[in-house]
Amino acid sequence: MILTNSQYDAIMRTYEQKQLHNHKELEKRYTNAYEKLPALKELHEAISSLSVGQARKLLEGDETALAELKVQIKDLSEEANALLIAGGFPEDYLEPHYDCADCKDTGYIANEKCHCFQKFIIDMLYEQSNLKHLLQKENFDTFSFSYYSPNYIDPETGHSSLATIRDAYEESRKFVDTFGKEFYNLFFYGDPGVGKTFLSNCIAKELIDRSNSVIYLSSFQLFDTLAKGRFDKDEQAAKINKHLLNCDLLIIDDLGTELVNSLTVSQLFLCLNERLLNRKSTIISTNLSLDALVDIYSERIFSRITSNYTMLKITGDDIRIKKKLMNMEEM
Ligand SMILES: [Zn+2]
């Protein structure tokens, strides 16, 4: 992932702050418990002096004394736990609590970055791409059906604009609700400006809020990155490429706006195929018709898409125009 040194340092500082905060909280809980249960403090002190003795016996190699001490420590610990629970405290009251139990707020599990670290990186990517700001405006809470007419009928399918967006909305909700449990992919197509990108953004926000890694790229950006990262020529791009294959959700917006050649076509196929094999979901949106897609990307890619994606056609008047008109009326 693309992280500058200062970004990396900023993340590590956050972990240090978490550790410090949780350590202080633990100290507070100890103080609280000792105030209410003075006998608990005595037990803990007894245990710690026995532990010191245990270390000494270990050095001396006195096996018998060591075994006796172990039993004593175990008995006292059980007594202390019973006292804590009898005093009305939860069993884990004096255990350290972590924001992320998996890495104990260190950011790493063994030498691998923890999922919470990955989440930090994604947040940073969003900061950089300004999508975070966009997602404040475009999410399920701000979604409106009022832009869609029940009278605008798609001549091809006979469905109204309102009916197509209801379907797409329901599928998007289902996609979010079953994400991680069921594997599927969405393909939004239809007229420009009818809310395909808006729906993708709704999904992106919901999933990011649930700690999933989401990468959002316009088709143009996607192919640019794929090309730069090829053969690991550009190290940063190569890292992003790896993440494109592994992130929880990849959103490819405006497919068909990139410069298409045989190389980009095969790269798209590899990327989509790899994600299918990894069972990582992808959302694609395009203004192109299905016929136009077959012409551009070949039958092979296209059938790979149609057989693995839920195809959702959205039709209607250009919403961006409608929104503008409504805004003008308000003025
Ligand atoms: Zn973690």
What's the structural blueprint in terms of helices and strands?
Layout: H1 5-36, H2 38-60, H3 63-86, E1 108-109, E2 112-113, H4 115-129, H5 131-137, H6 161-177, E3 185-190, H7 196-209, E4 214-218, H8 219-228, H9 235-246, E5 249-253, H10 262-277, E6 281-286, H11 290-308, E7 309-314, H12 319-330
Parallel strand pairs: 3-6, 3-7, 4-5, 5-6
Antiparallel strand pairs: 1-2
Helix pairs in contact: 1-2, 2-3, 5-7, 6-7, 10-11
Bound molecules: zinc ion.
Zinc ion is lined by residues 100, 102-103, 114, 116.
How would you sum up this structure, described in words?
This protein has about 325 residues and is of the alpha/beta class. It folds into 2 domains: about 5-110; about 130-330, Rossmann fold (3-Layer(aba) Sandwich), CATH 3.40.50. The protein contains 12 helices and 7 strands. The chain has a 5-stranded parallel β-sheet with strand order 4-5-6-3-7, sandwiched between helices. The protein has a two-stranded antiparallel ribbon with strand order 1-2. The two termini are about 45 Å apart. The structure holds zinc ion. Zinc ion (ZN) binds near residues 102, 103 and 114.
